[in-house]
Write a structure and sequence with these properties.
Elements (H helix, E strand, L loop, with lengths): L8 H9 L21 E4 L5 H13 L19 H15 L13 E4 L67 H4 L4 H17 L1
Antiparallel strand pairs: 1-2
Helix pairs in contact: 2-3
């Protein structure tokens, strides 16, 4: 019977660890993030009274605590430990995993294993937690100022047209035509009028 070469043993172990060949990728442990994602959970050795303080702080400082309410998907198990862990992680993710955001006076710890269970999903990013990523510009709608245009009224003085130097038709008030209105006072014509009247009276 041919014995298995001792030199081939390391290759066999490598083959088994890599997933048995067939082009498949190496197996990853369930629940452990391969992309460096981290979560924040409550320390298991922390008393409930201290966790309650941390839970109240997280919910009051911006964490999304709706899922751990009585009608939420993460209400069960109804324990301070579980509720504090969810609230701490929500706060941690909304703060973009900033240093010190997973401390809570030493009652929390950063975990590399996803604590989600069943229908209760722990957010693993800023967007999933409903926060705003750092450096995301806040777009403010541009407000166009309303300009009230008041029409400029240029006062126009209407001066009546002067007809012949006055308001009368041309030629009536001119000195050269005044004789047409007042008549010509001729002494000869006056004498003839008196003579005609005298002869009329003698005949009568």
């Amino acid at each position: 019977m041919r014995s298995f070469p001792a030199a081939a043993l390391p290759l066999l172990l490598l083959f088994l660890v890599s997933g048995g060949g067939g082009g498949r990728k190496g197996r990853v442990m369930v629940g452990v993030a391969a992309d460096g994602t981290t979560w924040c959970i409550a320390r298991s050795n922390t008393v409930d009274a201290t966790l309650q303080i941390a839970l109240d702080y997280a919910c009051g400082a911006g964490a999304d605590c709706a899922p751990i309410q009585s009608n939420g998907l993460c209400y069960l198990p109804n324990t301070i430990q579980a509720h504090a862990s969810y609230a701490m992680n929500s706060y941690y993710q909304r703060k973009a995993r900033a240093p010190g955001s997973c401390d809570f006076a030493g009652t929390a710890v950063v975990a590399t294993t996803d604590p989600s269970y069943g229908s209760c999903v722990y957010p693993a990013s800023v967007s999933a937690a409903g926060g705003v990523s750092p450096g995301t510009p806040t777009t403010t709608p541009a407000t166009t100022p309303t300009t009230t245009t008041t029409p400029t009224t240029n006062p126009t003085s209407t001066t009546p047209e002067t007809l012949g130097g006055g308001l009368s038709p041309p030629g009536l008030n001119t000195p050269e035509d005044s004789s047409a209105i007042t008549g010509t006072r001729n002494p000869v014509a006056a004498f003839l009028c008196v003579l005609a009247v005298s002869m009329f009276l003698v005949v009568v």
